[in-house]
């Protein structure tokens, strides 16, 4: 956005972008372009980059302010916003972006002070340009259009709307109210707003395409992109601009003509340079009063001149992007033609192409190898020269006439003659190509060795027999080649893994499905890998497989090597047959039974049996590490009254709610157990000191003491907690449980709703055992 004349007191400035730089979308191919060089510069020499950024901003802002101060100036091209957008775009990390922001603001402020702007003017000027640069840099960062700017008119137009027009509108809408509040503009608010929009629009439109195009260049290309054609058209464009502004009634029509010629002949980056130079020259001449504008009755009509300048720049940029797109398509088409030609020649199949005169146009490499010819001995000769007498007669009398009528033929049996006089029986299938008028151009034929075809038929029959047998097997069977890639699936395998054979044929089996140990840990050894490595039959492995639908299945994997006779009569490994037996139901039943044996049915907490096992292991660990553990024996106070007053259903719901709060109040490594009834035990396997156990118990008391909403009831309960610490209060399971129980009963006798440690004088009031 451009500042209005200094006399009208309406300058503006720029701001930083907050999100991280997105140049990684270009990948490794952009590692050596100008943008990458600037990114490395901010990482290695941030001070120099900040100084360069401040200098650039100051020069561009100073130039705009200088033109704006001229007597005939209404709007001067403001290019500092475009410079700030690109400067912020080429930083990475918060620190570099903050340095770039500070440098930009310092440069703009310096330019404003040197131009005679006061502090109030700067304060009303900076936020608008800050918003413009921030918004523009953000749009450029997240939009892929800037990467396609050079070869897509649609992307070019979208960048113009989002990174040129939108920031100009937002910045003007922010700046005008601030300038009105500060009394910095003498013009009407709408006119000031329009001048700010047009100035920024012209300046950003002139500079931003050039900067974005330069970012895509490699440093080695920087010296070569300004050539003789560019210099000639630059001189012509500037000369036409000067003459048209001084002598012609409708100058902008004529000024745009050399730019359109440049758009056809030059690259986008060169056209952008011409647009920048012409826009700056036109803006300078308008500011210096060298353009005789037509008489106007209102101030806003002067803005039409600058709007014409902006509209003059757009067609050449869009046309240049269109020419870039056309050039890319032409290069891609030529590359594709060359690729298809090489593909035709190198494809591992016998192929040939025949022209309208019946002579050979092209042959594949395998065709030449099988028949023993060189390409120069084949191309240009009649195709029938390579057939024996019987095949030649049949081709001339039957096959070729039928082919010309129908445009195709399939599985025609020919006997071809090799260069050494040998014969090759083939099956030929061909199609014809025609031009737009329907005239025959060429034929494309594929030839297949009959011997190989017969072998393929035998293999197909064997495959059908094998597939029929596999379909009757309930377990999943996967056939793999010697590289571990999927070759076949029976219906049970398709149903289990969720992929069809067409979707996974040729894909490596390793990594196709998620694989874990039964306990969810690291996957056990892969029997397929072992089978391929050792050519042996490894022991079956049970594991969990994550299939395509996201479900985990427990399977038993059995891998068997597959052998075929080799050339020397020995067996050679050609792959693996993998059998997956689904044992999910049996495994789930086993886990369910194990959980029922070790967990409380009502609350899902560990029961007495599981507590005994964990306490035993915790004591063993404590002895090795010479640490401490604590056991909290907890009993609900007056729980029997809840059952008596509200029924057992309410009591069961309350017990489940209490269990959840106790679990939430302890660490994940602690064990919360329900012994039965309203008795709970908490095992703290690792504590530093006894007060740690007190803090946990107090936290449990506070958590449990909050009201419970059970249906329409609001209930409150509390715990009496007894604490025993090992080794002080014992070093075996039974002693710790008994003493924690004793401490709990002492708390109950002392009034309930509290906690207490076991003391030496406590009488054994309880009879708890693990």
TrEMBL record:
Transmembrane intervals: 49-68, 98-116, 161-180, 192-215, 273-292, 304-327
Domain PAS, residue spans: 336-407, 462-507
Domain GGDEF: 627-760
Coiled-coil features, chain-numbered ranges: none
Domain PAC: 410-462
Superkingdom, natural source: Bacteria
InterPro entries: Biofilm_reg_signaling (IPR052155), GGDEF_dom (IPR000160), PAC (IPR001610), PAS (IPR000014), PAS-assoc_C (IPR000700), PAS_4 (IPR013656)
SMART domains assigned to the protein according to its UniProt record, in alphabetical order: GGDEF, PAC, PAS
Record keyword Translocase present: no
A Pfam family matched in the record: PAS_9
PROSITE patterns in alphabetical order: GGDEF, PAC, PAS
Keywords for the protein's UniProt record, in alphabetical order: Membrane, Transmembrane, Transmembrane helix
The protein, known as: Diguanylate cyclase (GGDEF)-like protein/PAS domain S-box-containing protein
Species assigned in the record: Sphaerotilus uruguayifluvii
């Amino acid at each position: 956005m451009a500042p209005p004349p200094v006399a009208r007191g309406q300058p503006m400035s720029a701001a930083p972008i907050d999100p991280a730089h997105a140049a990684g979308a270009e990948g490794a191919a952009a590692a050596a372009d100008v943008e990458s060089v600037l990114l490395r510069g901010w990482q290695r020499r941030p001070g120099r980059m900040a100084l360069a950024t401040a200098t650039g901003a100051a020069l561009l802002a100073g130039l705009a302010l200088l033109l704006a101060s001229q007597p005939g100036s209404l709007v001067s091209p403001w290019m500092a916003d475009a410079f700030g957008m690109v400067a912020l775009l080429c930083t990475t990390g918060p620190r570099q972006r903050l340095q770039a922001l500070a440098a930009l603001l310092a440069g703009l402020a310096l330019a404003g002070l040197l131009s005679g702007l006061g502090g109030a003017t700067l304060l009303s000027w900076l936020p608008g340009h800050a918003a413009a640069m921030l918004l523009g840099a953000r749009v450029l960062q997240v939009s892929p259009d800037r990467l396609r700017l050079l070869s897509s008119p649609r992307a070019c137009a979208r960048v113009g709307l989002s990174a040129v027009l939108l920031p100009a509108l937002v910045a003007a809408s922010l700046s005008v109210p601030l300038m009105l509040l500060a009394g910095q503009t003498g013009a009407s608010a709408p006119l000031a707003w329009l001048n700010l929009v047009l100035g920024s629009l012209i300046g950003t439109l002139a500079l931003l395409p050039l900067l974005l195009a330069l970012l895509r260049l490699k440093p080695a290309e920087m010296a070569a992109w300004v050539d003789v054609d560019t210099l000639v058209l630059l001189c012509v464009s500037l000369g036409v601009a000067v003459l048209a502004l001084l002598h012609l009634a409708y100058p902008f029509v004529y000024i745009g003509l050399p730019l359109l010629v440049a758009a056809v002949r030059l690259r986008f980056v060169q056209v952008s340079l011409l647009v920048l130079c012409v826009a700056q020259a036109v803006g300078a001449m308008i500011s210096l009063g060298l353009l005789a504008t037509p008489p106007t009755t209102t101030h806003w009509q002067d803005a039409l001149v600058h709007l014409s300048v902006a509209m003059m720049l757009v067609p050449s940029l869009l046309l240049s992007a269109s020419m870039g797109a056309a050039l890319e398509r032409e290069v891609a088409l030529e590359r594709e033609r060359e690729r298809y030609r090489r593909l035709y020649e190198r494809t591992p199949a016998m192929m040939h192409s025949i022209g309208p005169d019946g002579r050979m146009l092209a042959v594949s490499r395998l065709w030449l190898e099988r028949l023993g010819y060189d390409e120069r001995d084949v191309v240009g000769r009649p195709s029938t020269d390579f057939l024996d007498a019987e095949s030649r007669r049949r081709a001339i009398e039957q096959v070729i006439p039928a082919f010309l009528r129908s445009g195709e033929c399939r599985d025609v049996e020919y006997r071809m003659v090799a260069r050494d006089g040998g014969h090759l029986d083939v099956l030929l299938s061909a199609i014809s190509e025609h031009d737009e008028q329907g005239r025959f151009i060429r034929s494309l034929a594929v030839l297949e060795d009959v011997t190989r075809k017969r072998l393929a038929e035998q293999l197909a029959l064997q495959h059908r027999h094998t597939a029929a047998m596999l379909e009757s097997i309930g377990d999943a069977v996967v056939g793999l080649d010697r590289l571990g890639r999927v070759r076949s699936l029976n219906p049970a395998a398709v149903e289990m893994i969720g992929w069809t054979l067409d979707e996974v044929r040729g894909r490596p089996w390793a990594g196709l499905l998620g694989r874990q140990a039964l306990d969810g840990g690291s996957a056990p050894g892969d029997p397929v890998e072992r089978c391929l490595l050792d050519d042996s039959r490894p022991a079956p492995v049970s594991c969990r497989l994550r299939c395509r639908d996201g479900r985990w299945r427990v399977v038993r994997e059995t891998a068997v090597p597959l052998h075929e006779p080799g050339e020397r009569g020995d067996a050679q490994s050609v792959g693996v047959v993998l059998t997956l037996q689904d044992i999910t139901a049996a495994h789930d039943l086993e886990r369910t039974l194990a959980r029922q044996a070790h967990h409380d049915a009502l609350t899902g907490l560990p029961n007495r049996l599981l507590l005994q096992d964990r306490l035993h292991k915790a004591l063993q660990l404590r002895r090795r590490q010479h640490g401490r553990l604590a056991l909290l024996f907890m009993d609900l106070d007056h729980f029997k009254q809840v059952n008596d007053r509200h029924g057992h259903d309410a009591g069961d719901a309350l017990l489940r709610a209490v269990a959840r709060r106790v679990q939430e109040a302890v660490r994940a490594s602690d064990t919360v157990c329900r012994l039965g009834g309203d008795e709970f035990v908490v095992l703290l396997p690792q504590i530093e000191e006894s007060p740690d156990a007190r803090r946990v118990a107090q936290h449990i008391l506070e958590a449990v003491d909050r009201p419970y909403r059970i249906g329409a009831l609001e209930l409150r309960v509390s715990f009496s907690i007894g604490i025993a610490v090992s080794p002080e209060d014992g070093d075996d399971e039974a002693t710790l449980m008994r003493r924690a129980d004793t401490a709990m009963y002492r708390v109950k006798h002392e009034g309930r709703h509290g906690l207490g440690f076991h003391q030496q004088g406590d009488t054994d009031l309880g009879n708890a055992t693990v």
